[in-house]
Amino acid sequence: MKKKIVVLTGAGISAESGIATFRDSNGLWENHDIMDVATPEGWRKDRELVLEFYNQRRKQAKNVEPNAGHLALVELEKHYEVTIVTQNIDNLHEKAGSTNVIHLHGELFKSQSTVDSSLVYEMEDWELKLGDKCEKGSQLRPFVVWFGEAVPKMEEAILVASKADIFIVVGTSLLVYPAAGLMDYTPLGIPKYVVDPNLPSTSPDPNLTLIEEKASTGMQKILEALIP
Ligand code: NAD
Description:
6-stranded parallel β-sheet; binds nicotinamide-adenine-dinucleotide; alpha/beta; Rossmann fold; 7 helices; globular
């Protein structure tokens, strides 16, 4: 039976594909205050601005390709049972070919009803407009978990993390909870790795290997360590 690897990824794994992280740009996300574009309050204040913000993210994501960091995770699947738990809303893990991805914070290329959160739709194109409605007649919103909203996939992610044989963290500042706490649910004593050019703070742990590099080169080191 293959060993289980669980990988927590954040905005940093997509940085080398050309998608900006937000902690690296002074807490602004593509020049927007996150309170305006990634909170329920922002949505109530100006739905048009929020729709346009995610339209631009979708337009951009359509034109970028996965990088060596994403591809290394696909390579790992040949030798391990890999589950990726991503905070990213882009689809670069899927585009690279990873088959088992849990999107904690939603998916850019899906829309969601504003009266019934179970109604989620694939988006054919990049644009979601005021007046686009769900089957129950309410305005569609981006299928994104905003700050202050519940993270429905967290339970599934915790279950997966609790059964990991190896845990890898790539490109996240580990500042956004509950995702940042996922490492705490892994079994005691398993090998853990953190890849990030600006390492986030973690508790001291003899089983934790810190790799202070970008996702592309850092993940290459992990492949060398984990694939015979
Ligand atoms: P973050 O912006 O808080 O942190 C990014 C981390 O990536 C930092 O620690 C930084 O040092 C690291 N980093 C920068 N370049 C890197 C590289 N080349 N390789 C590896 N690491 C690199 O991101 P976060 O922790 O994911 O939290 C931000 C939240 O914003 C997430 O919840 C996410 O939903 C959202 N977000 C998503 C995207 C996306 O989907 N691509 C982009 C920006 C923000």
